[in-house]
Amino acid sequence: MSDNFNFDGKPSRPQGTPLQIWDMLSILVLIMTVCLGAYFVLVFINPESSLNLLPPGGRGSEIPTATTTPLQLEPTWTASPTLALTPSDTPRPTFTPFFTNTPFSLVPPTKTPKPTSTPKAAFGVVSPPRNVDATLYNPDHGCNWQGVAGAVLDENNADYVQSYFVVVVVGKVNGIPVGPGGQSQIVPRTSPQYGLSGWELKFPWNEPVLSKGELYVQLLDIAGVPMSDKIPINISDKCSENLTLVRFKANR
């Protein structure tokens, strides 16, 4: 017994004695303190961590409190009448006829003939009739003379001398009729001053008179068949325009 006695006055723990319960609790509290400190450090560094039970912005399980809003009418509310809808008539379905077969025919359809063009006269005029001074062709035709003259040409503008024609002037001037009686002439070679097929007719008065749209000149064959259309002419009451020139030309 003298070997285990402490002379300093302090009892010594016997060697090989196991930890007491308080020692174990102290160690456990120390470990929990370290873990808790690490948890707070982790949450402080990363607040959005899934370990944070109260993250910023509110991810908790708080239930919103329902508030009741009382229904109120507008200050100037007026009830509007409900419009009654008028039912529209639905049209009845129309009958669709059945298709019929077109009969087959061996006879080809007849062609519609093209309209025939109106044949034009054998002769026309080289240019519209014009009034000139008669003394250009005959010095004896002074201001006491008025008439119409010209020539008959073929397709090549040469004098037509193969056949004989008759030129007539028909109409009325100041009530005086101008007709075939005495107002016609056989061509060619009757008035060479207008060409080999030239012709000339004098009106039955002794001074130039004015007339518009009352006279026409026409070319006939020797049997009296029209060889041209009726060519209207205007005559002047001026001595410098007492001759009306009309030149017929064969159409192609």
Please characterize this protein's 3D structure.
- It is built from 1 helix and 10 strands; from the N terminus they run αββββββββββ.
- By secondary structure, it is mainly β.
- The strands form 2 sheets. Strands 1, 2, 3, 7 and 10 form a 5-stranded mixed beta sheet that branches.
- 10% of the residues lie in helices and 23% in strands.
- The mean pLDDT is 78.
- 16% of the residues are buried.
- A hairpin with a 2-residue loop joins strand 4 (165-173) and strand 5 (176-178).
What is the 3D shape?
Answer: rod-shaped
Percent helix range: under 10%
Detail the poorly predicted runs: none
CATH architecture label of the domain at 123-250: Sandwich
**Cα distance spanning the termini:** 172 Å
- Which fold does the CATH topology of the domain at 123-250 refer to? Immunoglobulin-like
Radius of gyration computed on alpha carbons: 67 Å
